[in-house]
Amino acid sequence: MSDGAVARDWVVERTGKWREPDFPSSVYPTFPCGSGYVVSRNLHTWLADNARHLHSFQGEDVSMGIWLAPLAPRLIQDKRWQCFKVCEDSMLSMPDLTPAEVTSHWYNKLHCVSPCRVC
């Protein structure tokens, strides 16, 4: 699995927006955080084959980490995949963008060379 932002020892929230009522541990297993990640064909096949048995937790990234923890996938860090809303010229992904922000970053990338620079 590849993700620039791999969350380790992330405390499980019990209140607020990211509240997790179902996961019993106080800390999540390592998981890819952010709005994008890549999985191998083998992991994709395993997830598809087992989808009906997999419980969804508070977020898809947390769920992915919980589901795949027993398989111990190799995690590859790549800083171009963002976990937090930080704009960098070489980024491949940034989480929590509004539709207007996606449009703006795309326009800036096409016309200003950088998604982070307004022209």
From TrEMBL:
Entries under InterPro entries matching the protein: Glyco_trans_31
Subcellular compartments: Endoplasmic reticulum; Golgi apparatus membrane
Keywords recorded for this protein, A-Z: Endoplasmic reticulum, Glycoprotein, Glycosyltransferase, Golgi apparatus, Membrane, Signal-anchor, Transferase, Transmembrane, Transmembrane helix
Bilayer topology term: Single-pass type II membrane protein
GO molecular function: hexosyltransferase activity; UDP-glycosyltransferase activity
Catalytic activity of the protein: 3-O-(N-acetyl-beta-D-glucosaminyl-(1->4)-alpha-D-mannosyl)-L-threonyl-[protein] + UDP-N-acetyl-alpha-D-galactosamine = 3-O-[beta-D-GalNAc-(1->3)-beta-D-GlcNAc-(1->4)-alpha-D-Man]-L-Thr-[protein] + UDP + H(+)
GO terms under biological process: protein O-linked glycosylation
EC number annotated for this UniProt entry: 2.4.1.-
Pfam families (alphabetical): Galactosyl_T (PF01762)
Domain of life: Eukaryota
Pathway: Protein modification; protein glycosylation
Cellular component, GO, one term: Golgi membrane
PANTHER family reported for this sequence: BETA-1,3-N-ACETYLGLUCOSAMINYLTRANSFERASE, UDP-GALNAC:BETA-1,3-N-ACETYLGALACTOSAMINYLTRANSFERASE 2
Similarity annotation: Belongs to the glycosyltransferase 31 family.
Protein name: Hexosyltransferase
Annotated organism of origin: Pomacea canaliculata (Golden apple snail)
